[in-house]
Write a structure and sequence with these properties.
single chain, about 110 residues, mainly alpha, 3 helices
Length: about 110
C-alpha cells in the first residue's frame, strides 16, 4: 500500500507543478509594444548587460536543448533545486541516523 501512496504523491506533485503552467495566460503587450516577459530572470538581465558592454561577444557553448518557453526553463531550474535539496536532506538524515546507531552500538558494547 505504501508504494502506491508514494506513486500517487509523486503524480500529485507533477500535476500541481504542471497545471498552473498550462493555465497561465500571456499578458498583453506593454505600452511600448514589447511583449511582457513574466518569467524573465537574472540570466536574461546578465545577457543584456554583456551585450551592452561587448556587443561582439559570442558565447562559448550552445545549449544542448532549448526549452519551448521561459516557464519550462523556470520549471527545470525549480526541479534542479528541489532535487538538490532532496539530496542534501537525505544525506543529512542518513548522517544523523548513522551517528545515532553508532552511539547505541557503543553503549551496548560497553555493557
Amino acid at each position: 500500500m505504501k508504494r502506491y501512496q508514494n506513486l500517487l504523491l509523486m503524480i500529485a506533485v507533477v500535476v500541481l507543478a504542471a497545471v498552473p503552467l498550462r493555465m497561465l495566460e500571456k499578458p498583453a503587450p506593454g505600452p511600448d509594444g514589447k511583449v511582457v516577459e513574466i518569467f524573465k530572470g537574472a540570466d536574461d538581465q546578465a545577457k543584456n548587460v554583456i551585450h551592452e558592454i561587448a556587443p561582439g561577444y559570442r558565447p562559448w557553448f550552445k545549449p544542448l536543448m532549448a526549452p519551448p518557453g521561459e516557464e519550462i526553463n523556470t520549471l527545470f531550474f525549480t526541479l534542479q533545486a528541489a532535487l538538490g535539496a532532496g539530496f542534501i536532506g537525505y544525506y543529512l538524515g542518513m548522517s544523523v541516523t548513522r551517528a545515532r546507531m553508532r552511539r547505541e552500538l557503543d553503549k551496548e558494547a560497553e555493557c
